[in-house]
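Sample intake sheet
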Amino acid sequence: MLDGRGQVKRRAGLRLWLSAGWLGLLVIVAVFAPWIAPKDPLAQDLFLGRLPPFWVNGAEPGYLLGTDSLGRDVLSRIIFGARIALAVALVAGTVTCVIGAMLGLMAGFLRGWVDLVISRLIDIWMAFPPVLFSILLIAVLGPGLMSIIIAIVVIDWTRFARVVRAEAMAQGAMDYVASARVVGRGRVGTMWREILPNVLPTIVVLLTLEMGIAVIVEAILSFVNLSIATDDPTWGGMIAEGRTSVYQAWWVLVFPLVTLFLTVLAFSQLGEGLKDRFDPVLR
């Protein structure tokens, strides 16, 4: 039995370190992109269009992952695309987390009219189809990084609010909350000092999942040409371009798609690993 628990812990630790390692590498690559990228991601050379990766016959030295139809270096565009993906994930995920978690915490613990108002607001908000709502917001606000972040925050705060509300309600029924009230701690103090620390592992998991969702949303909007208005490289834009020439230059589609998949998977596994390690109940 102990051996089984040890294996579970080792697997959780391995999952945590692998996901954190990939995301850490991605952050380093994004921050130092101008020095790491081998080529200018916007430089075009039609004579070098659709060059294959370095291990395929016909490859050109210096273009490790090949080029797209305009002769732009695929590796450099993936590296610079990480900047946009991580910026959206970090800012949109954090703002969504703060707004949704605070509203959910208040609704779940304070109850009464506060819970009624917030719950009805969540129900109304979730009645709108999220994809159509995001496209409508982008159409109104105009393409741009800030528009994408605003759209994600406006749409996804309900996910945090619902889950945190349920967790806060469950924690509010625990004996330690009643003990805190007996010793004279107020409702607001109990919420911040007793409820929030025990709900925090769930919030962390939701935050990492939300960051992965934000990366996907940005890629989808880039895919349909509703992301940033400039020619800056995005993973979704590269996937959209690669889809049109998948039989002639499969690498233009495959490499950004694999990078997107690994990043979203890493965010998901990072949250689960952090919960396994820091959740006081599991410990």
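Comment: The chain has one domain: 79-278. The chain has a mean pLDDT of 84.
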